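Q: Give me the 3D complex with glutamic acid.
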Amino acid sequence: MRRTRPVHLILLLTALLCPRLGEASPQTAAPAQSASPMPKVRLLATGGTISNRAGGRLSAEELIRSMPGLERYARPKFEQFANVASSQLTLKQWLDLARRINGLFKDDPDLSGIVVTSGTDTLEETAYFLDLTVKSDKPVVVVGSMRNPSTLGYEGAANLLDGFRVAAEPASRGKGVLVVLNDEINSAREVTKTDALRLHTFQSRDYGVLGVVDADRVVYYRAPVTRHTKESEFDVSSIEELPRVDVVLVYQGATGDIIKAMVDQGAKGIVIASAGAGATSGTQGEGMQYAAAKGVFVVTSTRTGSGRIASRRPSAMASATPQLRIAAEDLAPVKARILLMLALTRTKDGAEIQRMFTQY
Ligand code: GLU
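A: Here is the predicted complex, encoded as structure tokens.
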């Protein structure tokens, strides 16, 4: 048998590794071989771990500079929308962010897509809000990182470059708001943070990824079929304030007085993160009946992390007004809250709200 000489092994390894090395190194990056101009992609930086450098947060401009090889995929533009942890973003900032994105797409027909950086803790909430309020089928890609720029193994620049590639990719159009971390593309509606620390934290559980971002290309395997972005009926162009909607967790021996307090403090809707497929505990049923008596909508979701709540009367609500009871379908409690807030900007009709929960 012929033995492989070391020099051949080196040549073989170089050939195999070449695309990855080329992508990571600006010196070896080849100019785009295309007649059409490079896609224009705009970054809206909002903060989060991806920019949380010890001694001072990275600016939007510094984030752009952190990506070697970006020029192979996009003409970047950038702006600093905010620079805070995701859980510090206000509902007013959500409204402003959606309006800003809609304005950018309207004013610049050449814009191919938008990347939004966010902290990861409540990233899925911001992403789903945008999924329901962005009025374009052009890609909006939300990106974060689990390790900060001062940490060994910071993956923020890699995630951001992936985000730019996804935003520049024509196949990303019409798929709703996308969440990109860890080389994976997930739907804003489906994805959730599943681990406090690990890099593979963003999962769509039973549904799985929409696609992946590999060294050679962005690959899609499926697309969401629920209503979103351009097909959404929600319009935040002139909304100053979203109605208050709170989330209540079900646990053994829970008291209903918390629900009553929410109603008394002005909640227009309450999402129950129920045990299993709709169970409440302790005196929560009394709290829910109090809410119904005050005309407050109650949406039943599940705290299990996956599965569906079908539209039927939960036993704890048996005596409450039926049109105020909504089933969250498969939406996570925090996302059911967002849909209910937006639904309440359009209607106070329970059947209409339930229709929305079956479509979005
Ligand atoms: N993990 C935090 C978040 O979700 C980021 C912390 C920070 O930026 O201060 O936003």
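A quick observation: The chain has two domains: 40-231, 245-359.
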